[in-house]
Design goal:
Elements: H1 2-13, E1 21-23, E2 27-30, E3 37-38, E4 42-45, E5 47-49, E6 61-65, H2 90-99, H3 102-113, H4 125-159, E7 169-172, E8 181-187, E9 193-197, H5 199-202, E10 207-211, H6 214-217, E11 230-234, E12 246-250, E13 257-261, E14 266-267, E15 272-273, E16 278-284, H7 290-293, H8 304-331, H9 337-347, H10 355-372, E17 381-382, E18 394-399, E19 406-416, E20 421-422, H11 427-440, H12 452-470, E21 475-478, H13 488-494, E22 502-505, H14 509-520, E23 524-528, E24 532-536, E25 542-551, E26 559-566, E27 572-578, H15 580-583, H16 593-602, E28 606-615, H17 617-631, H18 637-648, E29 653-664, H19 668-677, E30 681-685, H20 690-699, E31 708-711, H21 718-729, E32 734-739, H22 740-749, H23 751-759, E33 763-767, H24 771-785, E34 788-793, H25 799-804, E35 807-811, H26 818-822, E36 825-827, H27 832-872, H28 884-890, H29 895-899, H30 909-914, H31 919-923, H32 930-954, H33 959-981, H34 987-1003, H35 1019-1046, H36 1050-1055
Parallel strand pairs: 1-4, 2-7, 18-30, 18-34, 30-33, 31-32, 32-33, 34-35, 35-36
Antiparallel strand pairs: 2-16, 3-7, 5-6, 6-11, 8-14, 8-16, 9-10, 9-15, 11-12, 12-13, 17-36, 19-20, 19-29, 21-22, 23-24, 24-25, 25-26, 26-27, 27-28, 28-29
Helix pairs in contact: 2-4, 4-10, 8-9, 8-27, 10-27, 11-12, 12-14, 17-18, 21-22, 22-23, 23-24, 27-32, 27-33, 32-33, 32-35, 33-34, 33-35
Protein name: Phospholipid-transporting ATPase
Binding site for ATP: 400-402, 511, 553, 577, 606, 686-688, 768, 774, 797-798
EC number: 7.6.2.1
Length: 1056
């Protein structure tokens, strides 16, 4: 019927006046069997956004259907944007990000000072060339990253219908995402409702039931939507994804029709229609949608190592100023001492090497390339090339559950009847019992065949399976075979009950797993509507049941129930299933339920207790009267309804205990164990239910088997939060499970106390978390612990958390690419995070620490030589080395060997994965600290002093010999120091050493301006250089040997 309606609309499009068909907020038509999109400019659904002139404020709006004369307001473009800059802000933005670092700002000031003649020392290019090169490298890297983000956004927006706010009708097949926030107007389902999947919005795996607006659902034909005069009033856009207030009004009737709209009438962006057809009117687009409002903006992330190096450069600058003041003081502050002071500052400027940023930035790019080329973690993408060292400094890992730790695929694993238990390998026995029971006795009242024991077991199994097949909210859905004519009547006639043609939809994957299991053992759910359901037995017989009442599952009750009347016998039965904590007091006394629930929970299975109670006609009529009366109550309606239902929940017959497994991602358990052994504390943040989250925490071994779990009781005010925090404080070494609502109350009144207690837990599970709360938890850990955080997720609801963390990792899976595109690193499987952190995180941090300190050593040693030179020659502010010697020293003479440190590694990858405990040392930051920095300062002072004093002592006649001896010894010392620093040799390191040495020797022929070529070819020159180099390096080699022999680091013990 819907297909015919739509065909009529297409025909009428050509007959309607153009002005009648301008769509600014389009209707959406999403159907199972068609996929097409076209632009239709002949109908107007106008919207009005009330806002102050010149002030962009989120306001309520009125969305009109079919009124072209209504004024049109502009709304945000329906597009996602992960870019940091635009074409106008790119250059200022990148320059700001660079010059906010003290290092770059300092060199900008020094370079600018060279335009002042009295302050000029050497050539301009020796200052501006390195600075320009640094900025050019940075801008190119940022530009590449920005272009990649733009291309990814463009690709995603082409799928999201970024031109949605223009004009058009849109048709899409099911199982595709809704691209904007809509009000649900009409559906092809008879009951006026449909299911949607919201896992990418709130992280919940349950399917949500949505209801169409009654007025538009009752219209005789779809085309009537274009002829009515109606509008939707929608509240202003807001963060809360679980609430909505609005009204639907139809004006062309007498009296006017008014309907209130709530959350059940909405279809938020990023949700997926599970089946059927939905038609809606868009109310929010782009940055006003719920999903985008719950997403934080991308920020420029700065690594901890960069901040540490920034602090060290400030210390170096302070030392430089002090040294300059000492020089001027030793001069006696004579003459223009202030100018001399600034000249000394410029003269010692090499104490802070500008090449530090170049080397580190190029190193980061090299680490990113190595990560993406690692065959052990295929598909990994580095999207932010500025923070690879963060992977080696992490203390907290915050992970999503659905799609990250689990596959969200439920499998029925266990059925326990008290005296007998059935697993996956014995399900065929259950099937034979079902076949025997149904084949021998169509009616359950006349079972007479078979042995007594056999009969007892068979009847118990049949009752348990039938209860599982009846007690749920699952609806079977069949594909239509009506063909292109779309005739609904013939399509329904063509529907069959074959397994291939049937799919199930429900509010929980657990429910579907149970119904699929009953189908596998012979009792199949073939049809269901609001008032009845039918089961098919193995013999093909259809058992019909009337649905009298349904009591849905809630997080408070932790159980669901259904009352049915069997058509053939008229028997009324109340079936109920739920969590063991809720059902234990409801079922009759037994001695096995608690023990078996514990056994299944330890196996990581999600347990459900199933029970039943037979009701007489009089009992049910009495219950129905009291139940209907309670539902009409104005005051305390919920409490009264619950009390009536609880009157039935007494002494119920325990039928069985079921165990369902949520399939974990590959190698989740060993990966979590690896991370735990590495000293990383893992927090699981999920939008799912408390019971589900707790079960996954156990099955994934996030919480070890012998570890106690403290479930934080629901709190709503300051007093309750205080009492519960005191109870939690008395627990030791236990995992914490807390809901989002309770967390919000605790953070409002006792933020510091809660975070302090939670950080002491080996594991924390936060359930029912909104996307905003996930990001808030990340920021709390950053503020209160000052430790580095990593967030990992796979859905759109994880984007805020990923962007807020110091290091964001997205998993590119079947649920989409939103998290992957917004993350700093993208992986394809959760298990890859182990190698990413243990191997690449370790190498990136260790290499950058060594590279940064060595580059600073290279600057400090030449500054020490300059200080010695100036102090001997009457504290003159004259440079020791000028022009190309300084440029060559920082580039071709030493750059390649120093940069080859990015290939160094202290332990092999296999060793790093085998002993994850090595990772704990990285989080302490010992590879780059004030202690290691001070050691390098002492080495630089020692070597600089030896090189300069040695050259001054050994030179004989001309000053130019001092320059030749000291500079050559300096180059050799740097090459030998690189060799001393390297822990694992790579063939490229050897090439870099000899290449740099060859470049220096070859350039001597062209340096006659600085060197006496006749002197450097003599034996005195060679032995003097060799002697000075030996004295400067040999003691350090001896110290290194003794240290490795008597106090070796932990990694060297493992290697040996």
């Amino acid at each position: 019927m819907l297909q015919n309606d739509y065909r009529n609309i297409k025909l009428s499009c050509f007959l309607i006046n153009n002005s009648f068909f301008k769509i600014s907020f389009p209707l959406f038509y999403i159907t199972r069997n068609t996929y097409s999109a076209f632009s239709c400019r002949k109908k107007t659904i106008r919207c009005k956004l009330w806002q102050k002139p010149g002030f962009k404020e989120l306001k309520a709006r009125t969305v009109w259907l079919g009124c072209p004369e209504k004024c049109e307001e502009k709304y945000p473009k329906n597009a996602i944007k992960n870019q940091k800059y635009n074409i106008f802000t790119f250059v200022p933005g990148v320059l700001y990000q660079q010059f906010k670092f003290f290092l770059n700002l300092y060199f900008l000031v020094v370079a600018c000072s060279q335009f002042v003649p009295s302050l000029k020392i050497g050539y301009l290019y020796t200052y501006w060339a390195p600075l320009g090169f640094v900025l050019a490298v940075t801008m190119v890297r940022e530009a590449v990253d920005e272009v990649r983000r733009y291309q990814r956004d463009k690709e995603m927006n082409s799928q999201l219908y970024s031109k949605l706010t223009v004009r058009g009708l849109l048709l899409r097949s099911s199982n595709q995402r809704i691209p904007a926030d809509m009000i649900f107007l009409r559906t092809s389902e008879k009951n006026g409702a449909c299911f949607i999947r919201t896992d990418q919005l709130d992280g919940e795996t349950d399917w949500k039931l949505k209801v169409a607006v009654g007025c538009t659902q009752r219209l005789p034909a779809l085309g009537d939507l274009f002829s009515i005069s109606a509008y939707v009033y929608a509240q202003r856009p807001q963060l809360d994804i679980h609430s909505f207030e609005g009204n639907f009004t139809r004006e062309d009737t007498d009296p006017q029709i008014h309907e209130s709209l709530s959350i059940e009438n909405t279809l938020w962006a990023s949700t997926v229609v599970a089946s059927g057809t939905v038609i809606g009117v868009v109310i929010y687009t782009g940055k006003e949608t719920r999903s985008v409002l719950n997403t934080s903006f991308a920020k420029n992330k700065v690594g901890l190592l960069d901040l540490e190096l920034n602090r060290l450069t400030k210390a170096l600058f302070l030392a430089q100023v002090v040294l300059s003041v000492v020089m001027v003081a030793l001069q006696g502050f004579v003459g223009p001492w202030f100018r001399n002071l600034f000249r000394f500052v410029v003269l010692f400027s090499y104490i802070i090497p500008i090449s530090l940023r170049v080397n580190l930035d190029m190193g980061k790019s090299a680490y990113g390339w190595m990560i993406m080329k690692d065959e052990n973690i295929p598909g990994t993408v580095v999207r932010t090339s500025t923070i690879p060292e963060e992977l080696g400094r992490l203390v907290y890992l915050l992970t999503d559950k659905t799609g990250t730790l689990t596959q969200n695929e439920m499998i029925f694993k266990r059925l326990h009847l008290g005296t007998v238990s059935y697993g996956t390998d014995t399900m065929d026995e259950i099937q034979s019992h079902i076949i025997h029971t149904n084949g021998a006795t169509p009616s359950r009242k006349t079972q007479t065949s078979g042995p007594k024991v056999r009969k007892s077991v068979s009847s118990r199994i049949h009752e348990a399976v039938k209860a599982i097949a009846l007690c749920h909210n699952v609806t079977p859905v069949y594909e239509s075979h009506g063909g292109v004519n779309g005739e609904t009547e013939s399509a329904e006639a063509d529907q069959d009950f074959s397994d291939d043609n049937r799919t199930y939809q429900a509010s929980s994957p657990d429910e579907v797993a149970l119904v699929r299991w009953t189908e596998s053992v012979g009792l199949t759910l073939v049809n269901r509507d609001l008032t009845s359901l039918q089961l098919k037995t193995p013999s093909g017989q259809i058992l019909s049941f009337y649905i009298l009442q349904i009591f849905p599952f809630t997080s408070e009750s932790k159980r669901m129930g259904i009352i049915v009347r069997e058509e053939s016998t008229g028997d009324i039965t109340f079936y109920m299933k739920g969590a063991d904590v809720a059902m234990a007091s409801i079922v009759q006394y037994n001695d096995w339920l608690e023990e078996e629930c514990g056994n299944m929970a330890r196996e990581g299975l999600r347990t459900l207790v199933v029970a039943k109670k037979s009701l007489s006609e009089e009992q049910y009529q009495d219950f129905e009267n009291r139940y209907n009366q309670a539902k009409l109550s104005i005051h305390d309606r919920g409490l009264k309804v619950a009390a009536v239902v609880e009157s039935l929940e007494r002494e119920m017959e325990l039928l069985c205990l079921t165990g369902v497994e949520d399939q974990l991602q590959a190698d989740v358990r060993p990966t979590l164990e690896l991370l735990r052994n590495a000293g990383i504390k893992i927090w699981m943040l999920t939008g799912d239910k408390l019971e589900t989250a707790t079960c996954i925490a156990k099955s994934s071994h996030l919480v070890s088997r012998n570890q106690h779990i403290h479930v934080f009781k629901p709190v709503s005010n300051r007093g309750e939060a205080h009492l519960e925090l005191n109870a939690f404080r008395r627990k030791h070494d236990c995992a914490l499970v807390i809901s989002g609502d309770s967390l919000e109350v605790c953070l409002r009144y006792y933020e510091h106390e809660f975070v302090e207690l939670a950080c002491q837990c080996p594991a924390v599970v936060c359930c029912r978390c909104s996307p905003t709360q996930k990001a808030q938890i990340v920021r709390l850990l950053q503020q209160h612990t000052a430790n580095r955080t990593c967030a990992i997720g796979d859905g759109g609801n994880d984007v805020s958390m990923i962007q807020a963390a110091d290091c964001g990792i997205g998993i590119e899976g079947k649920e989409g690419k939103q998290a992957s595109l917004a993350a700093d690193f993208s992986i394809t499987q959760f298990k890859h995070i182990g190698r990413l952190l243990m191997v690449h995180g370790r190498n990136s941090y260790k290499r950058s620490a060594a590279l940064g300190q060595f580059v600073m050593h290279r600057g400090m040693i030449i500054s020490t030589m300059q200080a010695v030179f100036s102090s001997i020659f009457y504290f003159a502010s004259v440079p020791l080395y000028q022009g190309f010697l300084m440029v060559g020293y920082a580039t071709i003479y030493t750059m390649f060997p120093v940069f080859s440190l990015v290939l160094d590694q202290d332990v092999k990858p296999e060793m790093a994965l085998l002993y994850p405990e090595l990772y704990k040392d990285l989080t302490k930051g010992r590879s780059l600290s004030f202690k290691t920095f001070l050691i390098w300062v002492l080495i630089s002072v020692y070597q600089g002093g030896i090189l300069m004093y040695g050259a001054l002592v050994l030179f004989e006649s001309e000053f130019v010999h001092v320059v030749a001896i000291s500079f050559t010894a300096l180059i050799l010392t740097e090459l030998l120091m690189v060799a001393l620093t390297i822990r694992t040799w790579h063939w490229l390191m050897v090439v870099a050493e000899f290449f740099s040495l060859g470049c220096y020797l070859a350039s001597l022929a062209f340096l006659n301006e600085y060197f006496d070529l006749s002197f450097i070819t003599t034996w005195p020159f060679l032995w003097k250089v060799s002697a000075i180099t030996l004295v400067s390096c040999l003691p350090l080699y001896i110290i290194k040997y003794l240290k490795r022999k008597f106090s070796p680091p932990s990694y060297s013990k493992l290697s040996s």
